[in-house]
UniProtKB/TrEMBL annotation, chain A:
Upper taxonomic lineage: Bacteria, Pseudomonadati, Pseudomonadota, Alphaproteobacteria, Caulobacterales
Transmembrane regions listed in the UniProt entry: 26-45, 51-69, 81-104, 116-133
Keywords: Membrane, Transmembrane, Transmembrane helix
Descriptive protein name: Transmembrane protein
Organism: Caulobacter ginsengisoli
TrEMBL record, chain B:
Stretch forming the signal peptide: none
Keyword DNA-binding: yes
Alphabetic keyword roster: DNA-binding
Protein name, per record: DNA-binding MarR family transcriptional regulator
MF terms (GO), sorted A to Z: DNA binding
Length: 145, 104
């Protein structure tokens, strides 16, 4: 019969399995960032292109999840509870800020290129928050159970 | 705070610990992690599914049907409670150890 300490070590070894595999290539983060930035920039385009962009992002999200499952053997939803949540919230705030700015550009009398600039900013932010999310997730897995 | 008898066996503890860190994971990864045979792993999975701790999904991929497993919200909270109970027991054992040494 294992001791409680041995059971906690067993848990840690199982987490290490995920830790050893939980590495997403730079290209993955670039695709996620491109989807976020593209969604914001598409708000400047005439209908029905914004809706089409949103559909493409939804399809892209499914494809990325399937890629993760086939490559890593597991999938981790970025919007999970845990230590990564604050990073996810920052990403969401950046995305919502970019979309809101793009939608309200006419009412706020902003230049026509505003959605494209916002899209570029969102692209950079989402890329770095994606990388940060991965680091925080790995740190969470490495910490003791 | 008590230990969960469904999660407590080592293989199930490993299954729950791995699934608690991800959204879902493939059967093959769990087999690799636990080091048990397919049939033994299936029995553990079935036991956890019967109490509502696990959700099983089968999906075709690359011409084969793959099995994906995920902890349910009930399974996640049961695992979290089990870990807390283990931590409390480990802390109690660590606190008692110096007393035993003194008495010896």
């Amino acid at each position: 019969m294992p001791t409680p300490l041995q059971d906690l070590e067993t848990i840690q070894r199982a987490r290490a399995t995920v830790l050893n595999r939980a590495r997403w290539p730079v290209g993955y983060h670039l695709v996620v960032a491109a989807m976020g930035g593209g969604l914001v920039a598409a708000m400047a385009l005439p209908d029905p292109l914004p809706s089409m962009a949103a559909s493409l992002v939804a399809i892209g999200s499914v494809l990325l999840a399937n890629w993760s499952r086939s490559r890593l053997g597991f999938f981790v939803n970025g919007w999970r509870w845990g230590r990564t949540l604050w990073v996810s919230m920052i990403t969401l705030a950046v995305l919502l800020g970019g979309v809101t700015l793009s939608i309200l550009r006419q009412r706020l009398d902003l230049p026509d290129w505003t959605p494209f600039a916002a899209g570029a900013v969102v692209f950079v932010c989402v890329f770095f928050t994606g990388r940060l999310w991965e680091r925080v997730y790995r740190a969470e897995l490495a910490s003791a159970a | 705070m008590s230990l969960d008898s469904v999660i407590h066996p080592p293989a199930r503890l490993q299954i729950a610990a791995l699934l608690a860190t991800v959204t879902d994971a493939e059967f093959a990864l769990l087999r690799e992690t636990t080091g048990v045979s397919d049939s033994v792993l299936s029995k553990h999975i079935k036991a956890m599914e019967e109490v509502g701790y696990l959700r099983i999904r089968k999906a075709p991929a690359g011409g084969k049907t793959r099995t994906w497993l995920a902890l349910t919200p009930l399974g996640r909270s049961a695992f979290a409670a089990h870990v807390k109970a283990l931590q409390a027991l480990a802390a109690a054992a660590a606190a008692a150890a110096p007393e035993v040494a003194k008495a010896g």
